[in-house]
Amino acid sequence: MEMSSSFLESLRQKAMWVRQETLEIHKIAPETRIASSLSDIEIFVVLYYGKILHVDSKNIRWEERDRFIISKGHGAISLYPILADLGFFNKEELKRVCQEGTFLGSIPDPVIPGFETVNGSLGHGLGVACGMALALKRKEVDGKVFVLLGDGELYEGSVWEAIMFASHHRLDNIILIIDNNKISMLDYCKNILCLEHLEEKFNAFNWNVNTVNGHSIEDLYNMLNDLKKNTVKQPKVLIADTTKGKGVPQMEADSLCHIKSLKEEEIDKIIKELK
Q1: Residue 81 has what pLDDT?
Q2: What span, in angstroms and rounded, lies between the C-alpha atoms of 106 and 233?
Q3: Could you tell me what percentage of the chain is helix, strand and coil, using 3-state DSSP and rounding each to the nearest 5?
Q4: What is the distance between the alpha carbons of residues 262 and 58, in angstroms, rounded to a whole number?
Q5: Concatenated DSSP letters of 135-181
Q6: What are phi and psi of 238, to 5 degrees?
Q7: Does the pTM of the predicted model rise above 0.85?
Q8: Any idea what DSSP says for residue 2?
Q9: Buried b / exposed e across 47-82, counting CB within 10 Å, b at 16+?
Q10: Can you give the pLDDT at residue 66?
Q11: pLDDT (0 to 100) of residue 1
C-alpha cells in the first residue's frame, strides 16, 4: 500500500512528538540512556502508528498478534510514549518513570503492558525470537516476530548462534531490525570491533538482507511493509542506518554519547528548538 502525503505527514508529526516526550522522560529520569533511545524513534513510529505490527492494546496476549522483541532494552524509553498513547497503559505513568511505585524503569521488562520479554543483558533477544518463531510455525499461527538489535549488540556470540539457527530452520516469520547507529558504549564501533559489510555477513548466513535510512519514515514504511508480505523462505534483516542521539546536535557528534546525560536546561532548549 502506497503512503498518502497526509499519512506520511501524520507519522512525521508523531515522530517529532515522541522525540519531545522521550526528552521529557529523560528530564525526569536522567539515568535513562537518552542517545540510544533517540536513534530508533522512527522505527517505533512506523511499526506502531504505521500499523505494520498487528497488536491490540485491549488484548495484549492475543494469540494471533505479531511479537516485538526489543533486544536493545536500554534504547526503548522512546517506546513508552507510544504505548501510553495507544492505550497500553495510562499516560500519567510517563510522569513517573524510574520513580517509586511505577512499572516504567530505565530498562523495560514484561511487567510493562506491550513488552514481550526481559530486555536487560544484551545478546539474547534474537535467540528468544527464534524460539517464538519456531513455536508459531509449529502451531500454524501466522504472526510475525520482529526484533530490534543495536549494532554494538552484534559483538555478542549468542546473536550469531541465533542467526545460524534462524537460517537453518528457515524462520521466514522473523524480521530483524538492526539500529545501525555505529556507536557502541565507549567509542565508534569501527574503533572497537569493525562491523562493516553487514550485508555480506548476513548474506553468507542465508538471510534476506535489506538496508534503509533509519530516519526516513517513508522508506522505513515501504521496506517494512514489503518485508512483512515477502514470502521468501528465509529470515529477513533490515539494516537501518541511524544516528545515535538523533535530534540533539551535541550528542550526534559525540562518540561517548551512549553514557552521557543531558541537563534540564539543555533539554528545555532542545525541545523548544524542535517545536
Answers
A1: 98
A2: 37
A3: 45, 10, 40
A4: 35
A5: HHHHHT----EEEEEEGGGGGSHHHHHHHHHHHHTT-TTEEEEEEE-
A6: -115, 115
A7: yes
A8: P
A9: bbbbebbebeeeeeeeeebbbbbbbbbbbbbbbbbb
A10: 98
A11: 57
Q: Taking the CB of residue 206, how many other CB atoms lie within 10 A of it?
A: 16
C-alpha cell at 150: 543495536
Strand (E) or helix (H) holding 202: helix 198-204
Place of cell 492494546: 57
In eight-state DSSP terms, residue 239 is: E
Name, in order, each residue with C-beta under 8 angstroms of 46's C-beta and a sequence gap of 6 or more: 11, 52, 217, 220, 221, 224
Tracing cell 538489535 back to the chain, one arrives at 149
Q: Which three cell numbers mark 259?
A: 553514557
Q: Exposure of 38 by Cβ count < 10 A (0-12 exposed, 13-18 middle, 19+ buried)?
A: buried
Are the C-beta atoms of 66 and 47 separated by less than 8 Å? Answer: no
Cβ-Cβ contacts under 8 Å for 171 (sequence gap 6 or more) = 130, 133, 134, 137, 145, 165, 235
Structural class in CATH, domain 5-274: alpha beta
Which residues lie closer than 8 Å to 23 by C-beta, 6 or more apart? 34, 248, 262, 267, 270, 271
Query: Nine-digit cell at 213?
Result: 535510512
DSSP state of 66: P
Closest CA to 135 of 158, 116, 157: 116
Q: Which of 273 and 41 is assigned the larger pLDDT?
A: 41
Residue in 181, 179, 36, 28 with CA at minimum distance from that of residue 105: 28
Q: Evaluate whether 226 touches 162 at the Cβ level (below 8 Å).
A: no
Kindly write down the DSSP assignment for every residue of 67-107, as one continuous string: EEEES-GGG-TTHHHHHHHTTSS-GGGGGGTTSTT-S--SS
Give the end-to-end CA distance of the chain in Å, rounded to a whole number.
31
